[in-house]
Design brief:
The chain is of the alpha+beta class. The chain is built from eleven helices and seven strands. Helix 1 packs parallel to helix 7, helix 8 crosses helix 11 and helix 9 packs across helix 10. The two termini are 36 Å apart.
Amino acid sequence: MMSGIKKRRAVVVTFGDRQLDGQPVEEGIRAWQPGTTRESALLTDLGCYEDLTVRRHLTSSAVHKAGFDWLCYWLIQRVGERVGALAWFDTYSPPGWAERFNRDAFFDTDPRIDFACRFDWPLAWDLQTLFGQHTSRVGAAAAKRFVAGAVQVGAQSGVTFGLQTERPFEHAIVTLSSAQPDRRWITDATIGEAYAIGVSLHSFIEPRIDQLLPDWQISVPTDIQRSMLRCVSQGLSNREIAEQMSMSVHTVAYHLRQLEKRFDALNRVQLAYIAGRILDD
């Protein structure tokens, strides 16, 4: 089974290679087949071998050949700058790093998350430049804890990038890291290899995993609340919603509070944004 990590500010689960064995390809996502794309040799090999040990050897060899020590693959659910849920593929990540990341709420501290969710190109980083560029946004104490933890597990420099998924508010983030203390060793060729490895792993994993994060498109339990979300997305006030739905303003306010709680929305504006993304129309 996939293991849960104690909740703090976000729901975090971990999964590994064993959860990919024997999994049917998720409906609606095309399974990769050998010879149908021009993806990297790693993806070709992953698709050809069912043996778990062989797949691990192939991936680890590719990571180390590119000059990296670790690979972290995340699926995150993020609204604005708030991470609500995170699924962590931990087979190739530093031992204990997922637990430390969650325990110290590093998903609120790590500026690579924001970069990967906003931009389409890879980020070459080291710890000094990473936090030197974000001193106004990240508290000094939180940054110090993150740096200390990353140094301890040997993740001091590397490449991070985001990849598209099929679901609203969900992002795939790949980080390949090294114990080398600065990023001067990272060349354009290194970034290209990192990207090829990450895309290959993402293309292999995504069709083979069950739904790990909450699906907000199916989490509205009643037609009334779905209609109310549609009204909110249109910018209607509580009184206008009450008149349109033939209910009291107090009832509307109650349902909106429940919806904000369900979707972890901080305010009405954020709820309207979420509603616009998850409604069928």
